[in-house]
Amino acid sequence: MFDLDKWQEIFETIKKNKLRTILTGFSVAWGIFMLIILLGSGYGLENGVRKEFEGDAVNYLSINGGVTSKAYKGMKPGRYIQFKNEDHNILAGLNNVDKSSSRTRLWRISTINYKNQYGTFDVFAISPDYKYVEDLDMIHGRFLNENDQEETRKVAALGRLVYEELFKDDENAIDKYINIGGVPFKVIGVFNDPGSDRDLQRIYIPTSTGQRVFGMGERVNSVQLMLGDATVEQSYQTSEEIRSAMSDKFKFDPTDQRAIYIYNSIEDYQRFMDLFASIRIFIWFIGIGTIIAGIVGVSNIMMIVVKERTKEIGVRKALGATPWSIVSLILQESIMITAFAGYVGLVLGVGLLELISGSFQGDSYFANPEININVALGATLILVIAGALAGFVPAQKAASVKPVVALRDE
Amino acid sequence: MISLKNINKSYSIGSNKLHVLKGINLGIEKGELVSIMGSSGSGKSTMLNILGMLDNYDMGEYYLDGKLIQNLSEKKAALYRNEMLGFVFQSFNLISFKNAMENVALPLYYQKVSRKKRNILAMEYLDKMGLKEWAMHMPNELSGGQKQRLAIARALIAQPKVILADEPTGALDTATSYEVMKILKEINDDGITIILVTHESDIAAMTNRIIRLKDGVIEKNIYNGDLQEFRSQNLLNENEIKKIHETLV
Known about the structure:
The structure holds 2 protein chains of 2 kinds. Chain A is elongated and about 105 Å long. In chain A, strands 1, 3, 4, 5, 6, 7, 8, 9, 10, 11, 13 and 14 form a 12-stranded mixed sheet that branches. By secondary structure, chain A is of the alpha+beta class. Chain A has 13 helices and 14 strands. By secondary structure, chain B is an alpha/beta fold. Chain B is 39% helix and 26% strand. Chain B contains 9 helices and 10 strands. In chain B, the strands form 2 sheets. Chain B has a 6-stranded mixed sheet, sandwiched between helices. A 4-stranded antiparallel sheet of chain B has the order 2-1-4-5, with helices on one face. The mean pLDDT of chain B is 86.
C-alpha cells in the first residue's frame, strides 16, 4: 500500500515543477481560506447576536399596561391601564401558559446601603418564577420562593454587581441585612446573569413584600408568561387571548394597540433565527461557489499538467508503465498537493479568525468567530476529492492513449 | 525471435481509411541486426510500433519470442515491453526533469527494483556508454550524441531481448550517427536483436539485413551476402569509416 518509491518519484516531480505545484496549491489554499473566513465571520455575527439573547428566556410574553387611544363603550381614550395581582392570576390561567410572574419597579427608593457601603440600584418586586424569565444562575444562597411571597418576608436577592459594590472583600452576604429605602431586608442569595450588566445591578424582593412595605396596594407593572416550548403560532394565539381577556376586564377596544403592550420574545428570537438561517444559506452559497472556483482551478491545472506530461506518459508506457501506475502517479501527486495546500489554507484561515477574535472583545455584534472543525475538514476533503477527480479524468485519458500517439505528440 | 504473419494495419483519417501495412510476412532470428528502410509513408514506423507493442494491428499474427502478441491488455503489454523490449527514439524521449542516472534507471522502477540497486545498475550502464561523469546532469545539458547514448543505456538496462530503434541517428550529424551505430553494433555482438528504422542508406548499410518497405509491403529483403553491392553503392569506403571512428576515440 505505502510505496516509498512512488512517493519519492512524486516528490521529485513536484520538486522539479515548482510553478505548477505552487499554482495548483494556491488555488486550493485560497478556496479553503476564503471558505473558513466566510463561515467563521458568519458564525461570529451569529454568536454576537445570540449573546444579546443570552440571559433571558426566549419563550415568554411580557405584558405591560399602557394608555387607551380609542374610545370604547362610551369611555374616552386616555385611560391608564394598571394591572393588579388579580390580572396576573387571570393571565396565568390562559392556554399554553407554563409559568408566570409579575414585575413591579419600585421608584423613589434613593439609596441602598449595607453598613457604610452605599449605592443606587434598581429594585424590583417580583414573583418567584421571574427567575425563569431572566434565566438567572445563583452564585450564593437561593432565589425568592413561594414562602417568601406568602409570608411577606423582607428578603432580597442581589445581582452580582450589587453584591460586589455593597459587600467588600468577598464578605459573605447571606443572612446579612441591607437597607432598602430605610427598611432592612435580609439577603438570601446572589445571582448571576450571562446577559448585560444592567441586569446585575438589580435587587429583587417578593411582590407581596414590596406592595405592603412600599404602599403599592395590589398594583403590578407587568406580567410575564412563560409558554414552555410553544411555537410562534401558539404565542400569537396566546397574545390574542391576552388582548381579549384584558379588553373584557378593562373595557378597552381589543384593536387598541396602545392599551396594553405585549413583548413577544418567541417572535423576536424566531426573527433572528430566521435571519441567521438566511445568512447561513448565503454564506454557504458563496462558500460553495468559492469551492467550485477552487475545483475549476484545480481541474484546469490538472488538465494542463496531463497535457504537458503526455509525452512523458508515452515514454513511461514504452518503458513498461502500466496504465494504472500512470493514473495513480498523477492522482497521488494531485491529492498530495491539494491536501497539503488545503491544510495550509485551513491553518491560515483559522489563524486569521483567531486574530480577529482577539480584537473583537467586549460588547459588539461580533463575537468568537469560530469554525466547526468538521466543516473545515469536510470542505478540505471535498476539495481534495474534487481535485483528484479533476485529475482522474485527464489522467485516465492520458494513460489510455496508445504510447505511439503520446510519443508523436510534440 | 520475431515472426510476422500477414500483418495488416490501417488508420482511419476522418472518413477515409489509410491502409498502411498490407500483409507483412517476416521472420527475424535472435541476434540479427536488421534495418527497415523505405520512403516516408511506406509503413516502416508503423511496423516498428507494432513490433514494439506501441500500436496494435488489425489482422495477422505477431509472435515475439514465441509469444503471440495480439489483443494484449494494457497491463500485459506494459509487462512485455518492460521485459523484452528496449526503445531508442529519434527525438531521444528522455524525461526532462530527471537526471541522466534517473532516466536510465526508470525501466527498473517499473520492475520494482529497489532505488539503490537500480541506481547502481544505471551507473554501470552509463559507464558502459562513457557517460559516467554526466550521471547527475539533466538531459538538456547533454549533446545529441550523449542523449542518444543515454537513451541506449536506458533501453539496455532491463536486459531486453530486442532493441527497437526508430531513426536513432535521425537527429544526429554523421560522426555522431556513426558513433551511435558503433555502439548498437557492439550491443548486437552481445546477442541482442536490434531492429532499426532508417531512411539513410549508409546507416542501413551497417546492418546485416535490410528490409525495404514500399507501399505497405516488403519489396526487398537484402541479406548479408548481398550487402556488398549495396555497400559499395551507398557507403563511404573503409578508410573513411576508420577515420571517423578514430576521431570518435
